[in-house]
């Protein structure tokens, strides 16, 4: 799977070799230094310029690059980088739902937060009452 950094480098590498250095500068990256030559490898040149950027900086840059060099891969990775919707760390969650069946029965699933234990093993943390059901849930497709 590609990283956001590599997807941005690949997108900018779509430019002609003689345009790549100017494109990097246009997007706020450092100008070419001695020994750097986009003609020797456009992708490697751009990727080297991106190595110093944080995820936040890459995300901002990725949105700018996407306007000029759209790609499904870059769009997907930008969507993932923007996941969460609130400030703070991303968490692995199992979301809740309540299904009401035609026969009147109800199936309920609640939110579980995936945390790491002290030994590094994944554990499920139940947020409150009532306790988890012991029976298995049957999941069916269409």
Question: Which terms summarize this structure?
Answer:
142 residues; alpha+beta; two-stranded antiparallel ribbon; 5 helices; 5 strands; elongated
What do these coordinates show?
By secondary structure, the protein is of the alpha+beta class. It has 2 domains: 4-81, no CATH class; 92-125, no CATH class. 37% of the residues lie in helices and 14% in strands. The strands form 2 sheets. A 3-stranded antiparallel sheet has the order 1-4-5, with no helix packed on it. A hairpin with a 5-residue loop joins β4 (112-116) and β5 (122-125). α4 (55-68) packs antiparallel against α5. The longest helix is centred in the middle third of the chain and has 14 residues, at 55-68. The two termini are 29 Å apart. Mean pLDDT is 75; it is low at 114-126.
Set out the fold topology.
Elements: H1 4-12, H2 17-26, H3 42-50, H4 55-68, H5 72-81, E1 92-94, E2 97-100, E3 106-109, E4 112-116, E5 122-125
Antiparallel strand pairs: 1-4, 2-3, 4-5
Helix pairs in contact: 1-3, 1-4, 1-5, 2-3, 4-5
Tally of distinct domains: 2
Weakly predicted, low-confidence segments:
114-126
Based on CA atoms alone, the radius of gyration comes out at 23 Å
Mean of pLDDT: 75
As a percent range, the share of strand residues is 5-15%
User: Judging from the principal axes of the Cα atoms, what is the shape?
Assistant: elongated
Cα(first) to Cα(last) distance is: 29 Å
Structural class: alpha+beta
Number of strands: 5
Helix content: 25-40%
State the order of secondary-structure elements, H for helix, E for strand. Answer: HHHHHEEEEE
Strand order of the largest sheet: 1-4-5
| Count of helical stretches | 5
Largest sheet composition:
3 strands, antiparallel
